[in-house]
Amino acid sequence: MLDLAATHESITERDKAQFILEDLARTYQDDDKIGETIDKLSDEAASQNGKEKAIVLNHQGKALFANKDYQQAIRLFSQAILPQQCWPQPQLNACTGSQNIS
Hints:
Elements: H1 2-10, H2 14-27, H3 32-41, H4 48-66, H5 70-81, H6 88-99
Helix pairs in contact: 1-2, 2-3, 4-5, 4-6, 5-6
């Protein structure tokens, strides 16, 4: 099923790929290894573990940003979005943070 999702993703059938990945994340929610693989293929964190990691990084980045530690905030926001390039909340924070650096 992971290969099927990857194939859909590679031919830009992202909706089909995302549907398969979300179903796999629900089915194998207790398998961290499968969860990591799903998150790498997914447009957003699909596994619970991946979501939790992104949330923690996002909160830490927001705290650093509030303390005007912009470079470290950007680093954490970037880590939050690397595995899931389309998860909107950390991307918005990363973009907001980089615009306010000047």
